[in-house]
Structure formats: structure tokens, C-alpha cells
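Would you mind writing out the residues of a protein together with its fold in C-alpha cell form for me to study?
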Amino acid sequence: MKPYEDFLRQKAQVDQYAGFEPVFMPSCLFDFQAAMTDWSVRMGRAALFEDCGLGKTVQELVWADNVVRKTNGNVMFNTPLAVGIQVAREAEKFGIEVHVSRDGQVRRGINIVNYERLHLFSPNDFVGHVGDESSILKNYAGTRRAQITNFTRKLKYRLLASATAAPNDYIELGTSSEALGYLGHMDMLNRFFKNDLGNSSTGRGFMGKQNAWRFKGHAEIPFWRWVCSWARALRKPSDLGFSDEGFVLPPLEEVEHLVETNILSEGMLFALPAADIHEKRDEQHRTVRERCEKVADLVNHTGQPALIWCQLNEEGDLLEKLIPDAVQVSGKQSDDAKEDRLTAFAENKARVMITKHKIGAWGLNLQHCNHIVTFPTDSYEQHYQGIRRCWRFGQKRRVRVDIVTTEGGQRTMANLRQKSAAADRMFSNLVNEMNASMRIERSSAFTRNMEIPKWLSTVSA
């Protein structure tokens, strides 16, 4: 009967532990960090969705070190640009040996590699993978998501970590599940969601409208319980029942600056909120000078560090001219040049940094800066991550965020507020169900002996 029992165990959709009991746990970890790390090591394949500044990096490092010690194999530690250097410093602080690799060379143990260099490595050289800032997986059709998922597909040990797992769209969690080897994205959709066409299409439906997915009538609570079977979410230590001492954020002040436009849109007598992407782009290009001059007024002559988020190349180029002591990190630069400039600002060697969210908004610890200036974006994740580079646990000062916009950008601001509310609801649901799931005894053991039917025992005989 044992082969049949093994078959049933493999078919069971439960969160069976595929990891091992931790062999290393530093005493310097906070209690909630130790709890999250212990759980993820025992799981083997898990996700940690924790807010910025809660110590995801050290938890990832301890997880990776446990895998190395247990298997005597290698672990790939993927990070965004410039973050690898910070991870290496964090590892040194905790006595964990790591190697930063830029050329495809694999050394024994933990290898820190930028996502941009993943193609230089072979998964056959690794037993485990850590995906730092794993929200990079959220784009179902993205090339980077496919590359990471394919790289990790056969690895026994996998860990994802992010503060914005699915910023405002629940179904984006399916890409994390697939990367960890649980339900695939489409399997998840068909199990918990339905679309307007009643099929599995993720493309466009009638009149080119994007197919909208929503929860099946009975599926919302089971969905969150399923997510909690492979992920843990944390906004503050008290979410797990621990003390919040030392993890209280300083005040955040957001100030919106409405800039008057000198040139109106063609055919208009006065400025109106942009209605679509084309009008938004037109507004951005027409108002570059006015908006950038306002940004320069806000950061020049303060003598304090400032972080500026732009969206257009012409914004970055003009801001670099208007702010003499600023460095710009742009897409036209090489990865090494980007990393050098990002590191220079992180180490307080450059007073002002100008860059786009997609280049520098993930993973960097910039608590030395408490002044952010940004243009509004339709991406809630970019906006959130841009602010949380500075406004994070460990920041001691009030953080000021100046949002420079025009009348045409008012709908973008409203859209951001709506997405922020949706993200708060998602994280609240995840935390609530996580706490509930931790109170439930999770066991797939049967309490009754299996009886073989007489006709089957007769056939067997």
C-alpha cells in the first residue's frame, strides 16, 4: 500500500513542508525575523511579503546560508542593480559568506547576481534561488518573469521576497506561485477567478476590451488561505503578535504642487485633466520646463540630500542642468555606470540623485535622505517603492514628499489614491488570513487505517 499512499500524498494540494529544520539561526535576529526565517527554511519554497525596512535581506541571507550548509551546494541570490553591494555588506555584518558575481563565474556558497546578468549563469550550478524584490515577476507576459521562472523551475529550494507582491491586482500573485513551483498562473485563475467570457482568455475580448477577472462567488476566502499556504505577509511585527518597538515609522508629509502651464493643449482655452494616455503624454512633454524648474526650486540651496524621480529622458537631462550638484542615472548608461552612481548616492557621496523608478526604485536603502521629489505616475508600485526607499523602518526623521504636477495630472493623482486603497485592502486580507492559518493545525496525516476492499484484496491474491 505504500506506493499508493505516496501517490495520494503527491496529489494532495496542501502546504507540505519541503524544506528542513534550520541548521543556523543568528541570535541577533529580531524575534519576528527569526520566526519568518524558520518558517521559510522549513517550507523550502516560500515567499516573504514584508514591508520596507523589516529586515527581509538578512532573512533571505540566513535562508540561503541554511540551504548552503544543509546541501553543500550553491544558492543564487538575485537582486536589482546596485542592491547586491548592500546585500554583501549586510552579509558581512552577520558573518555570512557571499560572493558578488558579474561575469557568470560561480563560487561555492551564495552568489549575488543582478537580474540583468542572470542569463550568464546555468541553473545546473545551483540548488537554491533567492529572488529579492520579487515583484519583478508580476508582469505575466514579461520577459524577465519568464527568464526567472524557467531558471528556477527545477531547483528544490526557492525564496521570494517583496514589499509589494501584487501592488493592486490580486491575480498577480499567481506569477509568484508559479515561480515557486505551486499552482501555475493559469491554474490559479481557473480555480479562484472567472472572466466576463467564461473562459481562460487573458487577452482582449469584445471591442478590444481587456478581459476582467474577478473572484468566483465562493472563492475569496479559499484564495487567501491558499496564498497563506506558501507565503507570509507582514507590515509590522505586531501582525505576527510581536512587539513593534523599534519599528515605528516617522511621520510622512506629502505636498502636492500644482504648476501652471504656459502652453495649453491645441484648441483649449484652459487646462483640463488629461483623459487618456495620449493626452497625459502630451501634457508631460508640453510642461517639462515649468515642472523641472519647480523641482529645482525645491531642492537647490537646501544643502540636504534629495531623491528625484522623473519619467522622461528630457526631464532628467533638464533637471541635471538645473541642479548643479545632482547626478543622473539614466537608461543610456551601462549597467556598471548605473550601479556606480546609485551606490554613490546611497553612500552619501552625491547630494542629489535623478533617475526613473524602473531603474532605482527597488531594493536600495536610502535612509540618509528624507526629501523626495516626484512627478505622478500611473503605477502605484513605482510610487510606493519610490517613497519607501527613504521612508522605511530605520529612518529617524520626518520624510517629505513633494509631488509636482499640473492640472492635466489630476486624474493620475486620483488613480494613485484609488490603487493605494486597493493595495491596503489586499495586504489586510493577506495578513488576516495568515493569522487565521497559523492557528489551524496543518496536517495531512490520516487518523484511520486504510481498509482494502475485499474484491481488491482478492484480485491482489
User: Anything to note?
Assistant: The mean pLDDT is 84.
